[in-house]
Amino acid sequence: MSIQVSSVNKFYNQQQALKEVSFEVGKGEIVGFLGPNGAGKSTMMKILTGFIKPNSGEVLVDEIDVLTSALEAQKNIGYLPEHNPLYADMYVREYLHFQAAIFKVDKTKIEACIDKVGLSLEAHKKIHQLSKGYQQRVGLAAAILHNPTVLILDEPTTGLDPNQLVEIRTLIKELGKEKTVLFSTHIMQEVEAVADKVIILNKGNIVFKTDMNQLKSTNKSLETLFREVTN
Ligand code: ADP
Ligand code: MG
User: What is the predicted pLDDT for the residue at 85?
Assistant: First the structure.
């Protein structure tokens, strides 16, 4: 298993953001993480990547305990946070060199990552000069610099135009050929187009998990299902 989460509970003061959340993601799977705003998706992703701690539960990524060995686990994890925090005044290549230095990645790997995310023609520009779609590519390049086995992508296509959306979706699918990917989104077609499995979270609870093939055989659209389990 690439990701194993069991009985995770997370409180922000009195408010419980995650309730006994358990799920698994197999090696090489692409999993869509759905849920209304405030469902707890980002909280779960921050816990998975070791940025915040749950109040209880167990989290393993590539068999490494994220709660006790976050730094070790992070070597296998690429993370694109929600709102993709970038240094807009830096040049693309400069930013990736900066990230590589922080994460002690061999600088000779940078050009291959630029190439892989389709940034070759834009890498000489400042980040703020790029369209939102290309800025997402910079975030994705930064996330894969250290060649992680698992990618956690928090709403990677939110705010993109229809063309950019398809491009980033294709890129996620491409990256998913060699990595395990858990991505959150509000777009049902995206999950249908890219994911092998779907997990739906509502008010901190997992309310549905299924295989996309299994879902297809029920003849029910993901959108119908989503509304049934989150309303
Ligand atoms: P999602 O990503 O699914 O929209 P979040 O994980 O961001 O959901 O939020 C889940 C719940 O936890 C929301 O009610 C949100 O307001 C709350 N929450 C998230 N982060 C914090 C925080 N740092 N402090 C207090 N409450 C928070
Ligand atoms: Mg979120």
Answer: 86
